[in-house]
């Protein structure tokens, strides 16, 4: 919107319910069915990254036995019948650089698949194209004692093991990708005991729902973070969910002749009623764009931005510009981000 002073404020918020990402296996959930006492299995995370910094858990196993969906933390970062944990990376640029998928525990590779193209699922035609290969490039590891893990959506051509390969915790299996039924770059880890899906955040025999006694099988405690930042930055054109997942808009400087300056955010796990606050500040300290709005609908993946047009009356001046963003939930700030960019 252009005011009479020439300021331009564009606040655009896009809610996207992510495409469902089922595993390609038909194992059943453990909810409602008790298993024999399992032998001990301790899992490392299946991705070589700094969790919470350059990777994050995007989706958790669904613990609701009916048509609804709930994760182990009683949140909504899952979907109906989701049988695994999705360890995500920020975008396809990170995927191209290479983020290793690693074995979560020692074992023997049972079977592998490679050769499935990496592409983000956007519509029904894309879904149909991956019928029966929803897992994309991936593999299954037998850990003994009735335990198996499955790794899905790995990068095309990256699978580094074959059936029969003996692996240890941390053995590189391939690279994080976007193959199969995947709408963002990640590795989907499914855990099974005696053929039944196990939520590693609560362990086997936990029963359905989220308010259950938990015995996690992670080797290290994994903090439940249902809401967080994926990326933030500046652009000279309006971003979309596709361009953000593609890794566009990593600029650290612009010239003063750009048509507009936008400060954008890509986040996950926003909820209805969250308050989002944006501010764009010029080098002289003037606040040229500001917005505060409640979230109308929850979204597993969300983007928004504010910006300023470059006009003769109110030009984009050289210097250091600052963008600020906060997500506030129940009077608590969940995300607090500041970014700067140089205009010459």
From TrEMBL:
It comes from the Bacteria. Keywords: Signal. Residues 1-27 form the signal peptide. The keyword Amino-acid biosynthesis does not apply. GO terms for molecular function: metalloendopeptidase activity. Residues 81-200 form the M23ase beta-sheet core domain. PANTHER family: L-ALA--D-GLU ENDOPEPTIDASE, PEPTIDASE-RELATED. This is M23 family metallopeptidase.
């Amino acid at each position: 919107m252009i005011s009479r002073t020439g300021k331009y404020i564009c606040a655009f918020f896009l809610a996207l319910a992510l495409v469902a990402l089922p595993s390609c296996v038909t194992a059943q959930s453990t909810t409602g069915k008790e298993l024999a006492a399992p032998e001990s299995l301790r899992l490392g995370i299946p991705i070589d990254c700094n969790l919470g910094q350059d990777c994050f858990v995007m989706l958790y196993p669904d613990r609701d036995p009916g048509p609804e969906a709930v994760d182990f933390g009683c949140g909504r970062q899952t979907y109906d019948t989701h049988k695994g944990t999705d360890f995500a990376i920020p975008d396809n640029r990170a995927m191209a650089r290479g983020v290793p998928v690693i074995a979560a525990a020692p074992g023997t590779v049972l079977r592998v698949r490679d050769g499935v193209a990496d592409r983000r699922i956007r519509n029904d035609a894309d879904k149909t194209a991956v019928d029966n290969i929803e897992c994309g490039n991936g593999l299954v590891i037998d850990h003994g004692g009735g335990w198996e893990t499955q790794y899905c959506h790995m990068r095309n051509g990256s699978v580094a093991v074959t059936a029969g390969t003996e692996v240890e915790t941390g053995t590189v299996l391939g690279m994080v990708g976007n193959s199969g039924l995947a709408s963002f770059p990640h590795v989907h880890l499914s855990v099974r005991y005696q053929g039944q899906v196990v939520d590693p955040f609560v362990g086997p025999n936990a029963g359905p729902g989220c308010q259950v006694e938990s015995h996690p099988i992670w080797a290290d405690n994994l903090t439940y973070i249902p809401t967080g930042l994926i990326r933030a930055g500046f652009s000279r054109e309006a971003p979309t969910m596709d361009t953000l997942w593609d890794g566009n808009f990593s600029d650290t400087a612009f010239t003063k002749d750009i048509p507009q300056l936008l400060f954008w955010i890509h986040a996950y796990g926003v909820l209805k009623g969250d308050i989002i606050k944006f501010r764009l500040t010029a080098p002289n300290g003037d606040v040229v764009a500001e917005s505060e709005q409640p979230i109308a609908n929850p979204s597993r993946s969300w983007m928004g931005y504010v910006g300023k047009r470059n006009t003769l009356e109110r030009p984009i001046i050289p210097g250091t510009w600052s963008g600020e963003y906060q997500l506030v939930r129940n009077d608590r700030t969940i995300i607090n981000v500041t970014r700067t960019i140089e205009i010459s």
